[in-house]
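Worked example 4.2. Below are the chains of a multi-component assembly; read each line carefully before continuing.
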Amino acid sequence: MAKHTTVELDNLRARLREAEETLSAIRNGEVDSLIVAGPHGDQVFSLKGAEQPYRIFVEQMLEGAVTLASDGTILYCNRRFAEMMRSKLEKVIGSQVKSFVRAADQPELEEILRNPAGSKVRYVLEAADGSAISAQLAFCRLPVDEVEAICVVVTDVTEQQEKQELASALQNLRSAQEQLQRQNDALVRARLDAEAASDAKDNFLAALSHELRTPLTPVLMTAAALEADASLPESVRQDLALLCRNVELEARLIDDLLDLTRIVRGKIELRSDVIDVHAVIAHALETCRRDISAKRLEVSRTLCASEFHVNADAVRLQQILWNLLRNAVKFTPEGGRIIVRSHNEEGKICVSIIDTGIGIEAEAISRIFSPFEQAGRLITQRFGGLGLGLAISKRLAELHGGTVTARSEGHDRGATFTLTLPTVAVPATGRGIVQPPVAADGARQLKILLVEDHDDTRHSLTRLLSRRHIVRDAPTVEAALLAADREGFDLVISDIGLPDGSGLELMRSLRDRYGLKGICLSGFGMEEDIARSTEAGFYHHLTKPIDLNKLESIIHSLVH
Amino acid sequence: MDAANNGSERYVLRLFVTGTTPRSSKAIRNIRTLCDMHLRGRYELEVIDIYQQPFLAGKEQIIAAPTLIKKLPAPLRKIIGDLSNTERVLLGLNLQPVEPGHEGRPEGH
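Applying the procedure described above to all two chains together yields the following structure tokens:
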């Protein structure tokens, strides 16, 4: 009994102590809140500062937080939401949430306000400055006291959407890139095809020119021989001269076409020798002499340049000047004048060919250097030709570091074509100066081995060369080797394509066995053909049709 | 008086706090430290935010927070405040302080 009382007394004491401690703790401010029983259950009354962390949390969070009245009036929003709407807190609080929502979305929003629990929507919100913000809005009821409020968390998804757009743009870019790659592959294939086709065209052109030239050679040589035969009547010889001129013209056209192809394809190789330009002019005039006298043109030379040596390919330089001169002759009427002038200008030599011909209209000047262009259809009909000469001359001059320009006062007022090339100092010894090929006179009689499988060419060449030399002819490699074995020769003149082998192989054998010198005759005039024949031991490469004078001068230079 | 309990009895404790105030977090830290030191392996501690669950506070007749309730072992005891007075808390939980020099202060005046 006493023990029971003692226990109860202890309990009472403990509870009293608790009550005292509670009271003193409250009095001393050691608690955050008090819990008070009320008509609606227990209520928590926070003491100063207890709610502060929540407030800070809501203010600091990266989402917009909005409290709405059921009619959509904004009762509260955090700073983040005001910033999202590009506005100020005091402007946003008290305004209508619908004012930030597009008209199209408003009916749905009103429905949500009536029954907000758990709704999540994506709207494009209209900010105060008019910008559009993609946002996700999450709604829930907010039970605060007796007031029915709605809480909305607003998440800016613009960035997210931009990321998605970026990703899809990236995807598009990737597929575009793939497509480009495919197109590029197709282009590369097309280019390879085109290059192959172009090579095929080059080969075709080379073969074509060979086929076109081969039959010209015997015609030209026979006609030239007959033209020179004083026993024939003058009228026949004039006809033969006409024949020669036209065959030569055709050969030249073929040469021009081939040259142009090579220049355009960049497949031309230029030698670089020190050349006397004045000598080349003299030679070019000599070459045109027949045409000049036929048209009774008066040609005068005023070569004033004191520096007249250039680094050039002799054959090509001659081609340029000959083209320009031939052009002047062609377009100057009978009895007209042609003046050839040279002078120096700042380390360059300028060669002008001035004629009193039909002139060039101002608007046509820019076109005359384009291949296949002449100054109009009428010119082409009247004078003929393909209009390749000037294009070739200009490109060749440029490959030599020079220029070709044209000037004319207009129709029927003549034209001036000027070739400009950089000059070089003459070597002190005068060695290395390449003279243009000259016609041979007083050549001594030689023993020549002629190897050619084309019967007409072989026969006519044999006949022509036999006038000055002793000629043994052979149609095959075998026959040639046999002849060389039997008797000694001074010189071999050989075709490349032979029925039982290559002229190149033949040349190598003859050079190695007998130390013979050779001249190559070929329908193939491409740079690489010439390089191959030089490598095989041929001293000269002549492209068909063969100019007999040129052949003679080469023979002369080889054996002297 | 109950004998000081340093034995193997299980303790069931409840701490009522008000959100994340400094005092709340201090109370939580203090009781955790104390339990780890004196009741390792033989206690259950529940922390209740009265903002989130005010009805639980009423049920336990809590009138202020922070308040620690020792539900077991009997008798039920309530300790009010941030629990930084270790002596008073140990007394309320009927526990003896550990060796001097450790975190718990020796009893004495």
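Take a moment to check your reading of the output against the notes. Residues 22-38 of chain B form the longest helix (17 residues). The beta strands of chain B are 11-17, 43-49, 64-65, 67-72, 77-80.
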